[in-house]
Amino acid sequence: MLSIRNIARLMRVSRCILSENIPRQAAIQGISRNGPQIASIQLVRNYAKGKDKKKDSKNPTKVAVNEEQLASVINLENLKSQMEKCLITMKDEFAKNLSLRSTTGAIETLKVSADGKDYELQELGQIIRKNPKTIVINLIGFPQLIPNVLQALSKSGMNLNPQQDGTTVFIPVPKVTKEHREMLAKNAKALFIKCRDSIKDNQNEYIKKVKRKADISADLNHSVQNQIIAIGDKHIAEAEKLLQTKQHELLAGKE
Fold first, then answer.
1. On the chain, which terminus has fewer CB atoms closer than 10 Å, C or N?
2. Residues of the chain with pLDDT under 70
3. φ and ψ at 132, to 5 degrees?
4. Which one, of 76, 63, 67, 69, lies nearest residue 216 by Cα?
């Protein structure tokens, strides 16, 4: 049997271990020379490594898309068409509003809001490139819309500073500066975010429809939702590549 002194020592060691006043790995051996040996006590805590956590988050499990299965539950062609339309819209916006030099073509298709409707600028007036440094717009047919046109030009993101002279608007073609390129790159990011959000809206709309389906199994329901998310992520990745290409083009000063 242990003596009272050895029991007291053992209790003190236990309290130290519990209060973590000794290293997390500890061994208690040979409390008494003559008494029995106390089995070693080890305190070991295992923590997940931060690097492993980051690695897992960067490499999520890939979801295989079974188009035949999806088509039996949702209108797959319609879903893909809506998401692809978002990409096409972003490409068109890039072409129209993110030109380093103010081309006549970009100005012709500029949207002008009036009376609750949108019109292309070429529908409202005659647009002529007078010389390499000046674009002229004749708005004699719609003089009442000149303020709307001036506002649309100023907010076009093409760094334009239009000047009015009667029913004519003169647009000095701006020089390409570093600040102008950076502003266009920022506008490209805004158009990407708009595209990304539209894709996610379509994705969430279909997920809600699937969740309400009671005629399929819970496993199939969950699988279809994950596949819809995977399709949305694929289109967003494509949009992001387009953004990176456009921003590199703008910041490098290339048309």
1. N
2. 1-61, 99-105, 253-255
3. -55, -20
4. 69
| Alpha carbons 55 and 59: distance in angstroms, whole number | 6
Identity (one letter) of the amino acid at 66? N
E strand intervals along 154-219: 163-165, 168-172
Asked whether the beta carbons of 185 and 157 are under 8 A apart, the reply is no
pLDDT of res. 63: 84
The single-letter code of the amino acid at 187 is N
Burial (CB count within 10 angstroms: exposed 0-12, middle 13-18, buried 19+), residue 128:
exposed
| Tokens of residue 76, six digits | 């797959």
Q: What is the pLDDT of residue 7?
A: 57
| Pick from 98, 96, 88, 91: nearest CA to 185 | 98
List the end-to-end C-alpha distance of the chain, in Å, as a whole number. Answer: 91
Nearest CA to 110 among 100, 121, 102? 121
pLDDT of amino acid 223? 95
- Return d(Cα 158, Cα 94) in angstroms, integer: 11
Q: Which residues contact 68 (CB under 8 A, 6 or more apart)?
A: none
What is the distance between the alpha carbons of residues 253 and 100, in angstroms, rounded to a whole number? Answer: 8
Q: What DSSP state is assigned to residue 155?
A: T
The whole-angstrom separation of Cα 32 and Cα 6 is 7
